[in-house]
Design brief:
prenyltransferase activity (chains A, B); magnesium (chains A, B); about 0% strand; homodimer; about 290 residues; Farnesyl Diphosphate Synthase; Polyprenyl_synt_CS (chains A, B); 16 helices; metal-binding (chains A, B); mainly alpha; Octaprenyl-diphosphate synthase (chains A, B)
């Protein structure tokens, strides 16, 4: 049985292009959350191949995301668009995406549908993310639907497909992945507010500056008086001075917006565990909730 | 039986996103060469769906190509990247690509493999096109292999998959599509030299200025003395004055490079027709060869 790394390497070698292999070698390998989830459900030849396909899709989506978000770094290293330019990042993303889809054709139609549908959903999520950052969105449902699409859909597809390969109850593992994905994103959004900029590697309150009205802001807005709402709006998409930053952070604390967001993520995480027996999958959920607190 | 347009429209509606539908509506429909080829092999419910999938893939690849080539126009209208920005063009391309792959899962593994493999090949071709424009390439094989990948592979997949759906001889139709695609690109390369800039909608000798050493240049270079080769090289990737343009055009004529390129395309086209009985498929080949002469 070939290892996950060997299979992924083979996919890249199949492409038979030195330039692709060279750039690919410069992509840091990341947390590999999706493969880890799959292997904690089932580890066999098929699931290793599936995990490699999903990781390739994930890498492709990040390559394009970083172009779209003008991100200069990824995993604390220079992003591919930063090092090689946007065009190379776009082309490499297309190459890896299509290789992943080609390999996916070896799987049952049911699994191929689940994974390819998730890619379609996540690419719509990326667009919604950009569109929602164009104005001060106050609709929580729009936000939650967007992060489900952008962040959770491929995680959900990973655990769902893993359950099918393992012959487990599909819905239990599908819900696990979906809830984990949404909770993960909410914790990320909280960290953007609570972590200091050094730990985070980017300025605090960065999301709000970039137009992203994440869950804590949505809750704080909902709970505030008209005047406070207007003041918060006036700070949207701006570089804030120290006094303004402090005011925003205090608002997010005083309205319990941070705490409520965390509890929302915790509730999702608890629901995720219904029917899940694997201790490792329970640990992964806990580690996500404990990322900073 | 739903029409091709209805199926394509349904794919877009499935995505359930107004912004996507709005931008999509602004993409001119183009020549629809690939659907036309498929329908001249077989027209039924399955082949209409396949043609819509392949057209969606083609549209996605053009969306990304135009970003990569900084193209401001497409089919004589503003390109999507020009109107909506590069980021939207990238995202829309990803959305349409993944929708196409999702729909492809409804087909036999064999067809899904052929089409997805072609997408992988064409995205490698796009990268090779960019890399080959970084230096004065004198290797004809590299050039021909690149245009096969970039232009012919999806056309080849269209006629190949069409033949499978029709129960025809696969190799005959595969060769037809492949040769047609390569011939099409060579004629395009010739037109960049022989057409006047008004008809073409871009300056003549534009390819050479952008670093693309196409077949006529490769042949002229091969047939020239060292001094002429050096002079040609000195004009590479430059805006040429009238005298220089004339010199290049005369070189391409005097070495028979245009004529040889045309004959190369014609030979491919003749080979393409071996075993092809459909008069319409013969006509399409002729119309490509006669595009300008």
């Amino acid at each position: 049985m070939n290892s996950f790394d060997t299979v992924l390497e083979q996919f890249i070698n199949d492409l038979n292009n030195n330039f692709v292999a060279d750039i690919y070698a410069n992509i840091p390998s990341g947390k590999r959350l999706r493969p880890k989830l799959i292997f904690n459900i089932i580890k066999n030849e098929q699931s290793i191949k599936l995990a490699a396909i999903i990781e390739l899709i994930h890498i492709s989506s990040l390559l394009h995301d970083d172009v779209i978000d003008d991100a200069l770094t990824r995993r604390n290293e220079n992003s591919i668009n930063n090092t090689y330019g946007n065009k190379t990042a776009i082309m490499l993303g297309d190459i890896l995406y299509s290789k992943a889809f080609y390999e996916l054709t070896a799987f049952d139609t049911k699994i191929a549908k689940i994974v390819s549908k998730a890619v379609s959903t996540l690419s719509i999520g990326e667009l919604e993310d950009v569109k929602l950052a164009e104005f001060f969105n106050t609709d929580k449902e729009l936000y939650l639907s967007m992060i489900y699409k952008k962040t959770a859909s491929l995680i959900e597809a990973s655990t769902h497909a893993g359950a099918i390969l393992a012959g487990h109850d599909e819905n239990i593992y599908k819900t696990y992945g979906k809830n984990l994905g949404v909770a993960f994103q909410i914790i990320d959004d909280i960290l953007d507010i609570t972590e200091n900029s050094q730990t985070l590697g980017k300025p605090a309150l960065n999301d709000f500056k970039e137009g992203k009205v994440t869950l804590p802001y949505l809750i704080a807005y909902e709970k505030s008086s008209f005047n406070t709402q207007e003041k918060l709006k006036s700070m949207y998409k701006r570089v804030l001075n120290k006094e303004e930053s402090t005011w925003v952070k205090e608002l997010l604390n005083n309205t319990n917006a941070i705490k409520d967001s965390y509890n929302y993520a915790k509730t999702l995480a608890n629901q995720a565990l219904t029917g899940i027996k694997e201790p490792k999958l329970q640990e992964i959920i806990s580690s996500i909730l404990d990322r900073d607190f």
